[in-house]
Amino acid sequence: MDFSRIGFIGLGLIGGSIAKTIKRLYPDTELIATAGHLSTITEAYHDHTISNSSLLELSEFKDCDIIFLCCPVKQNIVYLNQLKNVIKKDCILTDVGSVKGDIHREVIALGLEESFIGGHPMTGSEKTGYGSATAYLLENAYYILTPTAKTKEDTLLQFRDYIASLGAQTMILNYDEHDYATASISHLPHIIASSLVNLVASADNEAETMKTIAAGGFRDITRIASSSPVMWQNICLSNKTQVLKLIDQYMKMLSHTRALIESEDKDAILDFFTSAKDYRDSLQIKTASPVGKAYEFYCDLIDEAGGIATIATLLGENRLSIKNIGILHNREFEHGVLHIEMYDETSLHAAISLLKANNYKIYERP
Fold first, then answer.
1. Are residues 348 and 209 part of one domain?
2. Quick one: DSSP state of residue 132?
3. I want to staple 238 with a disulfide (CB 3.0 to 4.6 A). Which of 99, 139, 305, 337 is the partner?
4. What is the domain extent for residue 240?
């Protein structure tokens, strides 16, 4: 994989983390970048991630083997138009957006299908900017690749292997399949969470009784409603077709559930909750019930032999019992690669203090 010069257009949390990861694993690779603010470039230059110390014209990217587009989808599309006559023939153009339809359609219109491979690293947090980027954000995270109809197989496999070498778990989907899947497991849940919050806010009384007694279930189910409103505005508009399709399906299911309750169909109501529980329990990372307290935290971990065992041994030697432990592959709205759940609050705080004292990066769920 001879990718000796790689460019970044946009260097925020995701772009910065990819750049830092490449520099950690491939220190001889030359990285260049441009961004919306000179201060971002200055910071990345001073920590030796990129080689340029000033904002670059797009013409400076003409010799890049890979160019990562790391801006919002609409801005990435603008850059695509400008890069069309700049990139060399075998350059791989890729992006990191969570919606793929718009950019793929523009790629087709511009005749860039042989150069473009869409990308979506399913990792991140509510924090933004290069200052929040880390060299381990990709560790064991799913990284979805969306090739075009004209992507050469050897180019796709080479790029897939390179992304995998950065520590990510790669998956290849077409862009419609990707957008429908992410609308189901990411976009619709955010709409539902925000709708539930708005419902409770409008139904609450002047004494704010509902707000006062809101406990584990409500807080857990609606936690993602605290994400960036602007980001979710853009996602809904960019993935409009798939989001509307899922909203219609959800409304149909909600109406059916309402009918079951109205008719007092005991068996059907039980089946409704049982099937949901069975599917939820089959997910890789099992956490406490939404109505119960989960004593959990997240930890950054380098994917190396014995890494999890080292943490488990450290906690065990200090008489701290782990209730549940597992690797998170989809971390778009969670911190850390490793999810650890303890049995009680005392053990939780003791485990966090112990691991921090041993230089582990720990994140606690708010």
1. no
2. G
3. 99
4. 178-281
